[in-house]
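Our example copied in:
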Amino acid sequence: MNTSRIKGNLMLLTAAFIWGTAFVAQSKGMDFIGPFTFNTVRNYVAFIVLIPIIFLFKAINPSSENYGGTKELIKGGICCGAMLFMASSFQQIGIKYTTVGKAGFITTLYVLIIPLIGLFMGKRIKFKIWLSLAGAVLGFYLLCMSNGFENIAKGDFYVLLSAFFDSFYIITVGYFSPKADGVKMSCIQFLVCAIISTFAMFILEDPEYTAIIKGLGPILYTAVLSSGVAYTMQMLGQRNTEPVIASLIMSLESVFSAVAGWVVLGQTMSFKEILGCIIVFIAVTSAQIPEKEKSVAIKSRKIQKAD
């Protein structure tokens, strides 16, 4: 595994950790404001936070200014922003009507949805990845839905829709991230998502300034860390990681959310939930193991041709 891929995977892992802890903040925010109001303020703050980061990156690495083209940057920002709006809106609505545990499991179904979309696009998925996907889904079931599918809430269906748009979002990021500056594109996507959310907020909700102030804590947490930091890390991390592998790493957010609830909030985990964590860890790490046999076979062919 090369250095750039390791760095990319670590960025995605960090993003998954932040998203996992942000589930609680998203749920708390719904106590004060509606989902579109939450996402509007969240994305505007994330956009503002990233502006100085762009100049910081430019000062540290002046050559990054010439990375990618303006056309691809704007196009990528708009496409990613639109997908982000759909995914985050359905997730935020769903969290209001279902539990955080269920939402975590259903959201990570994008792990299966992405390769299924790839099949329709004519792509083949390695058998090893399919085994990892199966293991990941089993682990998430044990971790987040230890009581089975009892009492399915309507919010579950909203979160399921979010998982579909999450899949398209990850694929879109994977397409544009190698072609444009990741931090700038992340900044544009938040502005696009914020603008669309603003229209939805005024049409579907009745935002109040006092309510926004009350929910400012959860908003700032998700805006600065979950949006500003984590989504930017996803942009940069996905440059050197395949979408299916990236989805497996990022799906660890549900594991981190369960562990954070246990450590920070004192929420104990059952044997099934601990077993789920172990299965997910094995599934994700096994997907990262390079195929040595294949590389050895290729080298042997080159040696035979040289002889």
About this structure: Confidence is low (pLDDT under 50) at residues 293-307. The chain is about 80% helix and 0% strand. Residues 70-97 form the longest helix (28 residues). Residues 161 and 204 are 19 Å apart (CA to CA).
